[in-house]
Amino acid sequence: MEFAELIKTPRVDGVVLRRPFQPTVEGTLCLTGHHLILSSRQDNTEELWLLHANIDCIEKRFVGTLGTIIVKCKDLRVIQLDIPGMEECLNIASSIEALSTLDSVSLMYPFFYRPMFEVIEDGWNSFLPEDSFKDLESMTDEWRLSDVNQDYCVCASYPPLVAVPKDVDDDTLRKAAAFRHAGRFPVLSYYHKKNGMVMMRSGQPLTGTNGRRCKEDEKLINATLRAGKRGYIIDTRTIAVAQQAKARGGGFESEANYPQWRRIHKAIERSSVLQESLIKLVEACNDQSHNMDRWLSKLEASNWQTHVKEILTTACLAAQCIDREGASVLVHGTEGTDSTLQVTSLAQIILDPTCRTIRGFQALVEREWLQAGHPFQQRCVQSAYGNGSSVKVRCEAPVFLLFLDCVWQILRQFPCSFQFSEHFLVLLFEHAYASQFGTFLGNSAAERAKLKLSQKTVSLWSWVNRPQEAQRLSNPLYEANSLVIWPSVAPQSLLLWEGVFLRWNRSSRCLDEAYEEMVHIIEYNKELQNKVNSLRRQLAELETDDPLQHTE
Amino acid sequence: MRITFRRVCDIFGTRKTNRTQPMVENVRLIDRTVSRKATVGTLYLSATHTIFVENNPETRKETWVLHSLVASVERPPTTPSGSHLVIRTKNFQVLELLVPQERDATDIHASLARLSRPEKYSELYCLSINPTANKEEREESWSFLDLQADYRRMGVPNNLWVGTPANSEYRVCDTYPSELFVPKSATPPVIVGSSKFRSRGRFPVLTYFHQDTLASICRCSQPLSGFSARSQEDEQMMQAIMKANPGSEYIYVVDTRPKLNAMANRAAGKGYENEDHYTNIKLQFIGIENIHVMRNSQQKIIDMGEVKTPSMGDFLWGLESSGWLKHIKAVLDAGVFIAKAVAEEGVSVVVHCSDGWDRTAQACSLASVLLDPYYRTMKGLMLLIERDWVSFGHKFSHRYNHLDGDPKEVSPVIDQFVECVWQLSEQFPCAFEFNERFLIQLRRHVYSCQYGNFLGNSQKERRDMRLRERTYSLWPQLWKDRAQYVNPLYRADHTQTQGMLRPNTTPYCFKMWKGMYNRLEKSAPPRHSPADLLTAVREETQQLEQELTNHQEVAPRGTAHSGTKQGIQTRSRNAPDEHPSLRPSLVLYVFTGLSPVDVYCWVLWGVGGGGGGGATAKSKMS
């Protein structure tokens, strides 16, 4: 298919772009296969380059022959384009609609994008499972890397290599996989160096209504317990939801069959509920006509903050089991690809200081989200403005955004313990929904391998890990903190993530200035330190020269 | 040793004799934030404080509660383990004690009830504790601020505004200060006539003069207009105010009350200005609720803070139903309206509510903060409070319950002003010289009565009490401690410190003030604060600058070797390490771990304190 077929009017002059808190721009609108471009063709005004993939939905209006297109983006911004000429406007609108909802992944921009920067380190090779296993091997010999899923046959959403207990053979894994939702048998998620406790994750066990059991599954997870120790199973669903799952063949681990495990149920909502929540929240944030009562009641009704609290609380619980109770943990919900990953990845941020560095966080996203089979493509097909008309089964959900929101909450409470700043989290949010990079395409390692992303697209990490970008994303307040950090999950400690949800609804000038001021204070301090140190060195040298001078 | 607590009630009579303090041993201080954890210790009652000293020989942590900050003492029914006492303070802290003997609990309860409810001014801290120790120092403390100098700073008196002796000896209005500024054309008969037509004689006077536009802010109380009454002098007074601004044809009269309330007042012979009688005025109602609504609203916020493990829904619902942020927004909206009228339209504004000492004080002082960068400095804010609140007769002793009095007079009026300033500082992180701690400390002293500034209800009352001879002023003390109140992001030459502030008052721009209402309690882990870290960095920077200067002074004179050597060695011992991560001044802020395991229990998860605070730094993405 040629993009040109979809573009009836590639260019319109005299288009007016309106954005809140920014001056209106009049210029020429151009449509390309992947971008909507508006340029005033003057030197000092910026051009708007919008990826079609970033467009969540559009609305059109007409007053006489002046058409208006409201473009609502996945990064939550809303812009308005006034286009003279009804036909032009209709053509542009239908092109945008078609180009922003392309069915074929291989037509997406990352397959066409050529980097304008020099790739110093190929991000596709930065975080290989083999490498992270080497770290694990240096700490313990109780685990092995299994290639039972080499051809993605045992579990379609797992990577080819997974870490499992050394004493469990591949046959046992295959049998356990048959007993777990979508073959997601329990695998290692995190090894807590301090006490050797582990966190595992899986899909729900397929006990069904008649209480099926699987000796191999029991053997697999028991193999992770030390003699005489008990572990915790954190089921991210309420007991009621978990009970209902039995009717559809799912279920949970019974006390009788898993006597060494204590099961705790939490209440993280299903993804469709989270999507509703996002839509309501963004609607509330975008309506400036609300009075205080209405705003607070809309904020409450959206339930977004409740989800943040529940997810964070569950992650804290998992971290507490491991670090404080000295017990191993298995986390699962239904599929094991959404709430499970939120919990396991946040728990690692709490427990492991490495995950709070720029590279460590990338590794975490790579390991616990991309490799672990979070279906990014499905979840991010629409954002808060999506009406779902383009897909038959609604599967979009802000699962990853909620994870980032929770990280932001921890970052805000521990502003010096993270090597990266809020910018990094916002950047990941944007790129998960629309990107020139191939990192977040596809729904699993298997799909990514089939699409040959590593050969055909550029990795987001290649870009992020360039020194200038890493510098931009770094947190000036960072002081390495090797300790476990326990966030407060009290409601008053959890705030609305303004950097995402109010980003386009108010001017951020004063806050930006404050940030610059902060950077300035710290940079100036460093500069002085260097000066003082170099002077000290010079003086010390002068002193050692002294005897010579005297002898002369 | 046990001493009966009844004797404590006599302590005011005997405080100067050095008596043994009453005390009770084996008292448990229960941590309400975390799973009923308790520390055992001894409770002392002094003339001024309740003091709990932990038994743990390693920490011996002390908790001091000033009697004048005690809001209530409750005694829930006795349990087998002892009697509980719940002390709630005016700065939103809660202390729960478990006293083994019921008789002791009864005694403590009775003593505290009496000690925390003084009946006479002379029982208050600032008048009862060494009030006249150092005469010179005390007198100096009162001359720290000069209100008249601040009027001169804004260019008053001038050819438009003059001082009037009308209220000397508080003849015309006993709740106004003796020195007042009025339009030059307002004659004494006009002043007196206008005063007779205003509630409690509070006629329109100048509070702020804007030099750039020559527009001014005046304040007064409601007119005694009823349904038809009018006063020629009052109308002339308003006319004079309009004429005192050569650039404008009209003035705004801002009635800060909801219109309905203002109308209801007409039945009592009060009300608002009839636009037919006053030429060239534009009447504007703002809709700030009265002191009773505000009192109830704050109580709901306090109650909400005491809910054990609230869900997010509970919290947000509680926040909404308290109405608190709605009221904060209304107060800020009033300030914004006035500031815009003065700076952007160049129109003078006359502000009033009912008596003109609560809502009017809020609106006028906020407008000043928005208009004039000086009031965003520490000294400026002190002056502003001294002018718009203290001198203009805000009823501090009634509103903040200094003496056991009418509970219906109590209301968090200045709390709301202070909170509005905080909300502004969140929107303009570089605009204020002071930090959140300064605001919290300031508010605390409005309630504490440790200094004489806020005693009584008017300048006249304070003069009659001879407070300047008997107490100290708070301001020099705050100034002395200013290092801990500095906002590290403030720079006098920053764009945010220039000109008028134009805040966004969309509801989502208001936040719950956690630092005020959910203060960290004892066991909560210390948190990083970017503001504190930056302050430390700036202090270190100053030391480095100093050291650089020293080096540069020394370096060119390279021959003075022996001296230099000595100098370097001593300096480098104090100087920061070369490894940034080990900089001594910063190590302090690295998180130092958490209280024991049981702090976080399964069920009670979610109450482990809170953190953050300070400036939320963020920046725009490309």
TrEMBL record, chain A:
It is found in: Cell projection, Ruffle membrane; Cytoplasm, Perinuclear region; Endoplasmic reticulum. Residues 123-501 form the Myotubularin phosphatase domain. Signal peptide: none annotated. One of its GO terms (molecular function) is protein phosphatase binding. GO terms for biological process: negative regulation of autophagy; phosphatidylinositol dephosphorylation. Keywords: Acetylation, Cell membrane, Cell projection, Coiled coil, Cytoplasm, Endoplasmic reticulum, Membrane. InterPro entries: Myotubularin (IPR030564), Myotubularin-like_Pase_dom (IPR010569), PH-GRAM_MTMR6-9 (IPR048994), PH-like_dom_sf (IPR011993), Prot-tyrosine_phosphatase-like (IPR029021). GO terms for cellular component: cytosol; endoplasmic reticulum; perinuclear region of cytoplasm; ruffle membrane. It is a peripheral membrane protein. Belongs to the protein-tyrosine phosphatase family. Non-receptor class myotubularin subfamily. This is Myotubularin-related protein 9. The gene is MTMR9.
Automatic annotation (TrEMBL), chain B:
Residues 561-573 have a biased composition (Polar residues). PROSITE patterns: PPASE_MYOTUBULARIN, TYR_PHOSPHATASE_1. The active site is at C353. Keywords: Hydrolase, Lipid metabolism. Residues 550-579 are annotated as: Disordered. Substrate binds at N290, I291, C353, S354, D355, G356, W357, D358, R359. Residues 141-517 form the Myotubularin phosphatase domain. GO terms for molecular function: phosphatidylinositol-3,5-bisphosphate phosphatase activity; phosphatidylinositol-3-phosphate phosphatase activity. One of its GO terms (biological process) is phosphatidylinositol dephosphorylation. SMART domains: PTPc_motif. Belongs to the protein-tyrosine phosphatase family. Non-receptor class myotubularin subfamily. This is Myotubularin phosphatase domain-containing protein. It comes from Esox lucius (Northern pike).
